[in-house]
Amino acid sequence: MMQFDHIGVVTTDKKPGERFVSATRVWVTDFQTHPFHVEWLRYEPDSPVKGPVRTMPHVAYRVDNIAKAAKAKNLKVLLEPFDGGIAKVGFFQTDDGAVVELMEYDLRKTK
C-alpha cells in the first residue's frame, strides 16, 4: 500500500527551519508542519544528487517496503534507498517521467 506523504519542490532560496541531510548534501524543510505537506529542497553545489531528483519536483509516499513497492509499480531507480533521518528513503521515476520518493518509516522513531 502507498499512502501520500508530501510533495518536494526544489528551490535556491533559503527557507526558515531548514535542516541539513548530509547523505545528499541538501537543506530540507519540515513537510510535516507545512499546512500543505510541502518540502522545500535546496541542494549544496557539491551535492552528489544529479538528474531529475535534483531538478524536478517529487511526490512522496509512505510504504511498508521500498523494494517491494518499487518493483510492484515498475519504478526506475534514480537514487538508491538511504537513511533520510526520519525514514529510509529512495527516489524513483515512473514510466512517464515523474519523480517519486518512497519512504519506509521506522515505527519506533515515529511514536
Structural class: mainly beta
- Give the helix tally: 3
CATH classification class: Alpha Beta
Strand order of the largest sheet: 2-3-4-1-5-8-7-6
What is the chains' assembly state?
single chain
**Kindly, what is the distance between the CA atoms of the first and last residues, rounded to a whole number of angstroms?**
20 Å
Strand content: 35-45%
Q: How does CATH name the architecture? A: Roll
Question: Which fold name fills CATH's third level, the topology?
Answer: 2,3-Dihydroxybiphenyl 1,2-Dioxygenase, domain 1
Q: Helical amount among residues, as a percent range?
A: 10-25%
Please tally the β strands and state the result.
Answer: 8
CATH superfamily: 2,3-Dihydroxybiphenyl 1,2-Dioxygenase, domain 1
Q: In one word, what is the shape?
A: globular
- Poorly predicted runs are none
Radius of gyration of CA atoms, rounded to a whole number: 13 Å
Question: What summary fits the major beta sheet?
Answer: 8 strands, mixed
Helix-strand topology string: EEEEHEHEEEH
Structure notes:
The protein is mainly β and about 110 residues long. The chain has one domain (about 5-110): 2,3-Dihydroxybiphenyl 1,2-Dioxygenase, domain 1 (Roll). It is built from three helices and eight strands. The protein has an eight-stranded mixed β-sheet.
Write a concise synopsis of the structure shown.
The two termini are 20 Å apart. By secondary structure, this protein is mainly beta. 14% of the residues lie in helices and 42% in strands.
